[in-house]
Specification:
Length: 98
């Protein structure tokens, strides 16, 4: 389904559900043991925007990039995670992996 420049598929629906659940966790104060909820919410929104704008990307490589980015949130702050994600995504796009 096209919604402006975004192409929303079933994979993007899971990202939308994740963003809603993380938003509810922030609002009601539900705890996530090791992860910062705000950083995960920003990362999920960033993943949603890149996945829905570029619908032709390789799902397996994008999934690995998402998993690595999520686990790096345990050790690094938000700015470093966003820089890592953008640089990795750009390099993978340039090398035709995504």
């Amino acid at each position: 389904m096209y919604l402006g420049p975004f192409y929303i598929n079933t994979k993007e629906l899971f990202l939308i559900m994740t963003a809603v659940i993380l938003g509810l966790a922030i609002k009601f104060g539900w705890g996530l043991y090791w992860f910062d909820k705000r950083v995960l919410l920003v990362l999920v929104v960033l993943l949603f925007v890149t996945k829905s704008v570029l619908s032709t990307i390789n799902n397996e490589v994008f999934f690995l990039l998402a998993i690595v980015s999520i686990f790096l949130t345990l050790y690094f702050n938000l700015f470093q995670i966003i820089i890592f994600y953008l640089v990795s995504f750009t390099l993978m796009r340039w090398l035709k992996l995504i």
